[in-house]
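Dear all,

This email documents one entry for the complex benchmark we are building for the journal club exercise. For each entry we list the sequence lines for every component of the assembly. Then comes the predicted three-dimensional structure of the complex as a token string, followed by one or two observations. Please use this as the template for your own entries, and keep the labels exactly as they appear.
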Amino acid sequence: MRDRILTLGKAELYAATVQKKMKGWRLAQICATTVSDGFEMNYTFVKDQDMDTIRVHLDRHESISSITQIYPCAFIQENEAAELFGVLINNITMDYKHKLYRIDVEAPFGPKEEN
Amino acid sequence: MAKRSVIPFGPQHPVLPEPIHLDLVLEDEVVVEAIPNIGFVHRGLEKLVDSRDYKQYVYVAERICGICSFGHGMGYCESVERAMGIDIPARAKYLRTLWMELSRIHSHLLWLGLLADALGFESLFMQSWRLREKILDIFDMTTGGRIIFSVNQIGGVLKDVEPVMLKEIQKTITELESEVKPIIRTFLEDRLVNMRLRGLGVLSKEQAYTAGAVGPMLRASGVAYDSRETGYAAYADLSFGPITAIEGDSYARVKVRLAEILQSFEILQELLGKIPSGEIAIPVKGNPKGECFVRIEQPRGEAIYYTKGNGTKYLDRFRLRTPTTANIPPMLDLLKGCQLSDVALLILTIDPCISCTER
Amino acid sequence: MARKEKLFVFTPQILKNLVSKPVTEAYPFEEAHYTDRMRGHIEIDIEQCISCTLCAQNCPPRAIKVDRGKGTWEINRFDCVQCGNCVQVCPKKCLHMKKGYTQPETQKSVEVYTRTIQKKKFPKASSDCVYCTLCAKKCPRDAITVDRSQKLWSLNQDLCVSCGLCAKNCPKKCIEMIEINDEEAV
């Protein structure tokens, strides 16, 4: 059993995800976390007893491309990150465009806007 | 030329215990696509970690869902404890496992009842829930709550189960083990149940794996993965293995869950023989700093808990990926190509828990 | 694999159920039976209460309100989720989880309990103190600072809630709870 967190650059994410897919890892989880200067996106992959989390750091207004081309099942969790945190995710195969949850506030979990 | 039409399904539907809406694109009677729409019961509970301190949040985590309640509390505690590097007493680990396995039995019996109800088999539905009632009575006796127990705390559990109660539990589960047999026989052998479930909604091994299915759904397609084997709580000391089936159809999913009920009885018998005495909690001082991902096998499948502490009493982030979130994409695969009349049954076979999914 | 498919598999069980008793209670026609550990509602022994506000701070749904000046303890029973956290944190153990549920109402309401106000008492260590730091460890609000090397024992009166846990736990029994006049306390 091994749990790891690997921090990668935004550009490396796509290649790393393809590699995980080729090696037979299952996409377990995607989540966004607000940090002081932007977001952290965590992509967790599971294979048998092992769990690897790929972490990508994003600036506040930086966009990231969706991994739904590789793992189609990512669409719910990517939509959730986009809607609750305001992470800009491009090219989600099934983009709900902030209509996944019926909430009034835009990005309620995201960083507080400076007034 | 087949005529295309779109039929809305849910959010209120007799077979659905919780609200989920699907737009079904039909070609005559056959579903060609299903577009899920959730968000009717979103409460933003993950956000509450900002304003409830990490010890209080256990009670919030438990209330994310009614059926997997204990598991959520336990998963949250496990992840905070691992992030803080706390090792809880052995008895607390065993007690957590005890409640978790009882929860699994009660969740599966509840689901079997709902399935029987969806099949129109009322008496089987009532019988499943009748047996479930005995498990709820055990919860009531040991924790003071039938559904939500509030017995978890960071560093252990709040209430001890006394030897008299352990004897009572052993007696009840031994009784239940024999009482559950007629239900199992009915689900596996009854001609009507077989006709509805056999060959319906086949999910191949590859499909299940790449679509990210978890729990009984994944195991019914032949993938031997059970996150209990990662050895949280007392599972490392107990002997069990993942239960699988190869067919991947709805019948296989029922079969796997039925076998898991029996397996849980075995685990419980072993656990009751081994349970150590001693402390049930250790005092916890300080605040969590650091992060941790934890996998817990809920009755519905693998759930992932992530906590991130910053050294204050409020956590930075709590994330819960519930089994149903992972099971919705494979469910959409199942729906493609099925008959309209089978849609309700197929949605039910993933054991959906929408309030978990939306949190 | 030969399939074993039969009809009337469940019929014996149905016949058996016809003559067996129900597993549930016929409430409200029968008295409901509650277990000893039942988490039904919170009760307070108001005269024991010292208005420390720990219960209010640790209530996840924020159902409890404490007013230190007026000596009141309020609970909105319709917000309460019966988690029992207040019972856990109460330093005086004056809160209890009791059997029986809150009666249904058409509107949410707040129940107010008022205690007779006594002068606030603060702990004071006498010269017997050996600076063992036990009182500081037991203090739920971290109001006591003990420095063994400097032989100092000090109290932050703003944080102190007069629970008396320090006096109870002192191995030398040298801590006394002393009434301090309002002018002095401020």
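Observations: The interface with chain C takes residues 52-53, 55-57, 59-60, 62-63, 121, 123-124, 127, 130, 133-134, 140-145, 150, 153, 158-159, 182-183, 185-186, 188-192, 194 of chain B (CB under 8 Å). The domain at 42-327 of chain B is CATH 1.10.645.10 (Cytochrome-c3 Hydrogenase; chain B).
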